[in-house]
Write a structure and sequence with these properties.
about 1000 residues; alpha/beta; six-stranded parallel beta sheet; elongated
Length: about 1000
């Protein structure tokens, strides 16, 4: 027999929900005559419905704490959000409904459907009205799945689609309506063929069956439903059934008993409801399902003394009655408002980083007092991860109930890397990331893999990219020869043992990834791609030390995800390997990896739904900006707002009401911290409407005081970030022993010695050589080398007379010089076209030069002893000509900037004068020792070929060569002094242009001066 009046209770936001519920259950304040405190067996007769499994675990923990020592049987705790037959424990066998369709299977099947629809819309010109690619297809599939669940939860029949009149909407909505009618027929047929139902439908049927069972067995025992707002009709009917049971009780979270009656009635007004109000869901539950007024609900615990509930009720009151704010001071009293805000702090952070650190400080401070606890509540998962990372500064781990997406977990990243590496055909950057992943083994122990990865990186992954695919990688390693590299290149010192390691690893990579690499072309069934991916992933992970317990646990979640994907693979669309790699993060992202519940945790990160049930001493509500809290009301890609209204679906503003209820529940904590960033991503933010309303009713002075209290956390965060005062770093000027200093430099290094001696120190004393970047495309240096090689080979081939087909001969030599760049088609095409334009101009210039030269010498190499033989100057000139009028012309071909005559005269561009001095001293074999008559730069531009003299009118080439050589002798002597150091950037040409060793010299630290300094 059911109760005439429902048994309805509420717990105010300022009371700890689960703790209050546990005490009331044990003390008999929920169900009359049921007071199991002190009886370890009686509690097992009760059933408690809660919103989530985690809330159930927390309630069980609270009951155990209050039961004292000894054995206590806990009640049956049923999570409504993830209900199943075992949890409901039906008295008789329950075989209907059938198994729920797995979420991954549904997602893949709906993505396949949306792809077929999108392709069917392709017009004659090949364009479609719907975005393509895995991201768009899965986004549409997810929106369709949400609509299916929404229609089921709100009990809106699909037949109502026929009542929508085509032509009344934009053309896109008519297209979407046509598709929805296809989906309406397809999806039930799909489920029927597989004997499945949607999880939401199955949940609602189970809840309805449980409500029916409870109604048929009113004497089954105490039944309590707590923490739910009944936002879904099936759940609301279950709550109503429980409330009317003789031993039933419904405990509502945070029912507002302070809002005036007129405003309360207006929330569910048939003409103009207020779905964005935090109490709308509870008001609708009482009116439509319980059929009682608000006065039928009793408070289970008194509100906290601060009385913040009343202030929140006023701040969030319906828009139509906000004129009541004018009399707020009279109705509440200044003292009540002061008490409500006394323990409220507002953090106005400059950006997301400062907000995260300030929140971490606010949470960490709680641990200073034994027994106190705190929780961060935010819908912004990025902010939650930032806070967790900042807490690691204090060696504090926080219990995060949401966990992390599987795609961002360690095994998830390994799976993504394997797919990305195969899609990119073993491109160096993703391949290097895969080899360095903590779970990668490739049949080797971790130290052996690291050594082999170092060798492979040095031989072929840095610098130009090897040919695509496994064959290209293996061939690149097999063809690697250190003798092909300049002695200053680190690759020239690769040992035979390292080359063997690199070759072995390249073979292992090729073998492990072969199944997936073979699918690089065309579309393939999803099951084939998935199977090849699993095989490649297992081969990458397998190794002698790949069985550690922590790795096994990490990979278990990934194994479950792949099993779910395999189950749905027959329903998935065919994909290219590129689409599969792009889809994988999306397929793994919606599967969270949750850590186990930490018993007795004092710091937690909670979702808004869980937060309403957990009581802590300090609550931080963070990310309080529009578009985050509340979330933006996103447009439905399948139904416009008028179409949703016509179908009878709830307005999108209902989600704002749920967010508002979560906000109000969080504000009941004894200590409250409200936080938001003034900027996100460099753009100004808009504070949450909830925050603005609370500020409006608080008054400017009180709100400013709350901000000042929040600034304390910002100041503490700033102190953590503040670096202690230290002396400014001096410009480094290392002075190694003279015996270690270089005694041989080239003419091109002399300019470096003058401008940045530290580079000479790092290169020749420390013997450090910069590594190429990963997958580094050729730049201006490689282009200049190719042009110099072509022009040098041409001059060597024809030292006296030009051939009749000079242009064709130069082009042939250019093709050979540019051949190494063929692996980079875009760069090769651009630079080769410029070289072809250069050839006719160069040949015309060459004919003019040869009329003035008696003989030319291409790329001669020479050495000159200085300082009594203690120092050797070396150099290879681009070209030296013996002029018919006597003397030598020293030429230097430039593809980049040409030094000015002033730079040459002052000694900061000494290459040509030093080459002239070497020539005058007979340092070049087969070249007569004659003084220079001309120093010439030849600019090899794409528009013109231009000669520039390096000697001023009032100076001769021979005189400039002699004076430059004299300054070099002085420089050599100066650095033979043990006290003379190699200063960093002694005379840089350009400010802000950094060299290969400037990071070692900490240039960006010592070169940053104070105000008025450089």
């Amino acid at each position: 027999m059911s109760r005439a009046a429902p048994n309805l209770l509420t717990i105010p936001p300022s009371a700890p929900f689960l703790a209050t519920l546990a005490d009331a259950l044990l003390d008999g304040r929920l169900v009359e005559g049921f007071a199991p405190r002190g009886d370890p067996m009686a509690l097992a007769a009760a059933t408690v419905f809660l919103p989530t499994r985690r809330a159930g675990r927390l309630l069980a923990e609270a009951l155990r704490e209050r039961a004292g020592a000894g054995v206590t049987l806990l009640p049956r705790i049923v999570p409504l959000g993830d209900v199943d037959e075992d949890a409901l424990a039906f008295a008789e066998s329950f075989t209907d409904p059938p198994r729920a369709v797995p979420p991954t299977t549904r997602r893949l099947a709906l993505a396949n459907l949306t792809r077929r629809w999108r392709r069917a819309l392709r017009g004659d010109d090949g364009r479609v009205a719907v975005a393509a690619g895995p991201g768009a297809e899965f986004a549409l599939a997810d929106a369709l799945a949400h609509l299916i669940d929404e229609m089921a939860a709100q009990e809106v029949p699909w037949d109502r689609l026929d009542t929508l009149v085509p032509g009344e909407h934009d053309r896109y909505w008519d297209m979407a309506l046509d598709f929805l009618k296809i989906a309406r027929d397809f999806w039930p047929s799909f489920l029927a063929d597989a004997n499945l139902v949607d999880a939401s439908v199955r949940r609602d049927r189970l809840i309805a069956a449980e409500a029916e069972r409870l109604a048929s067995r009113p004497d089954a025992g105490p039944v309590i439903a707590a923490g739910s707002t009944g936002s879904m009709p099936a759940t609301a009917r279950l709550l109503a059934a429980v409330a009317h049971l003789p031993g039933g009780c419904v405990v509502l979270p945070g029912l507002d008993l302070d809002l005036d009656a007129r405003s309360w009635e207006a929330l569910t007004d048939d003409e103009a409801p207020a779905p964005s109000h935090p109490q709308y869901g509870l008001a609708l539950l009482l009116k439509a399902y319980m059929r009682v007024g608000r006065e039928a609900v009793r408070e289970l615990a008194p509100p906290a003394p601060h009385g913040r509930e009343r202030l929140l009720s006023e701040a969030l009151r319906p828009v139509a009655s906000t004129e009541a704010w004018a009399s707020l001071g009279e109705r509440l009293g200044a003292g009540a408002i002061d008490a409500a805000l006394a323990e409220v702090s507002v953090i106005e952070a400059d950006d997301a980083r400062e907000e995260a650190l300030a929140i971490a400080v606010a949470l960490r401070e709680v641990l200073e007092t034994p027994g106190r606890s705190a929780a961060l509540i935010t819908p912004d998962r990025d902010l939650a991860r930032r806070v967790a990372a900042e807490l690691l500064r204090f060696e504090v781990a926080i219990d995060d109930s949401a966990g992390e997406p599987l795609s961002e977990s360690v095994p998830g990243r390994l799976a993504r890397l394997v797919a990305d590496v195969c899609h990119a055909a073993l491109a160096p950057v993703p391949l290097a990331a895969l080899l360095r992943h903590s779970l990668a083994r490739l049949g080797l122990e971790r130290p052996a893999l690291d050594a082999a990865a170092d060798a492979l990186e040095l031989t072929v992954l840095r610098g130009p990219r090897p040919r695509a695919g496994a064959d290209g990688l293996v061939a690149a390693v097999a063809g690697f020869d250190p003798r092909d590299h300049h002695p200053s290149d680190p690759r020239a010192s690769v040992a035979e043992e390292d080359r063997a390691r690199a070759a072995d690893l390249a073979g292992r990579v090729a073998e492990a990834l072969a199944p997936l690499l073979a699918l690089g072309q065309g579309e393939h069934p999803f099951a084939v791609l998935l199977g090849a991916h699993r095989a490649a992933l297992e081969a990458c992970w397998s190794g002698p030390d790949a069985g550690a317990p922590e790795e096994e646990a990490a990979l278990a979640a990934l194994a479950r995800a792949f099993a779910a994907l395999a189950e749905g693979a027959p329903r998935a669309p065919a994909m290219t390997l590129a689409d599969y790699a792009a889809a994988l993060p999306l397929l793994l992202a919606d599967q969270p990896v949750r850590p186990p519940l930490v018993a007795g945790a004092r710091l937690r990160i909670l979702g808004p739904l869980e937060a309403r049930l957990v009581g802590v001493d300090r609550v931080v509500l963070a990310g309080l900006v529009e578009q985050t809290w509340p979330n933006a009301v996103r447009a439905d890609p399948w139904l416009s707002r008028p179409m949703r209204t016509a179908l009878g679906l709830e307005a999108p503003e209902r989600r704002i009401g749920l967010s508002a209820h979560d906000f109000a529940q969080g504000c009941g904590a004894p200590e409250l911290v409200l936080s938001y960033p003034r900027k996100l991503g460099g753009a100004p933010t808009v504070p949450s409407r909830f925050l603005q309303r609370l500020a409006a009713v608080s008054g400017e002075a009180r709100w400013r005081a709350a901000i000042m209290r929040g600034d304390r956390f910002r100041r503490l965060a700033a102190l953590i970030e503040e670096e202690p005062a230290s002396a400014r770093i001096a410009r480094p000027e290392p002075a190694p022993p003279v015996a270690l200093r270089p005694t041989r430099l080239s003419v091109t290094e002399i300019e470096t010695w003058l401008r940045d001696p530290y580079t000479i120190y790092a290169r020749h004393v420390l013997r450090l050589r910069p590594l190429d970047l990963f997958d580094e495309a050729p730049g201006a240096g490689e282009r200049g080398t190719a042009i110099h090689d072509a022009l040098g080979s041409f001059a060597q081939a024809f030292p006296e007379a030009l051939p009749a087909d000079a242009e064709a001969a130069l082009l042939a030599l250019g093709r050979r010089a540019f051949a190494p760049l063929a692996a980079f088609p875009a760069e090769h095409a651009l630079w080769w076209a410029r070289f072809e334009r250069l050839v006719p101009r160069f040949i015309a210039w060459e004919r003019g030069r040869r009329r003035e030269a008696r003989r030319l010498f291409a790329e001669p190499y020479g050495r000159l002893a200085l300082a009594g033989g203690r120092f050797t100057l070396t150099g290879r000139a681009d070209r030296i000509e013996q002029l018919r009028e006597g003397g030598l012309a020293i030429l230097d071909f430039k593809t980049g900037a040409v030094p000015t005559a002033k730079q040459v005269r002052t000694g900061y561009a000494p290459q040509l004068p030093l080459e002239a001095a070497m020539a005058a001293a007979g340092s070049f074999p087969d070249l007569p020792a004659e003084p220079a008559a001309a120093l010439v730069y030849v600019k090899l531009g794409t528009r013109e070929l231009k000669e520039t003299g390096a000697v001023d009118r009032d100076e001769t080439a021979a005189g400039l060569a002699a004076s430059t050589l004299e300054r070099l002798e002085q420089l050599v002597a100066a650095f033979e002094n043990p006290s003379r150091g190699y200063a960093s950037l002694a005379r840089p040409m350009f400010r802000g242009r950094f060299g290969d060793y400037d990071h070692l010299a900490r240039v960006k630290e010592w070169s940053t001066g104070g105000e008025g300094e450089e």
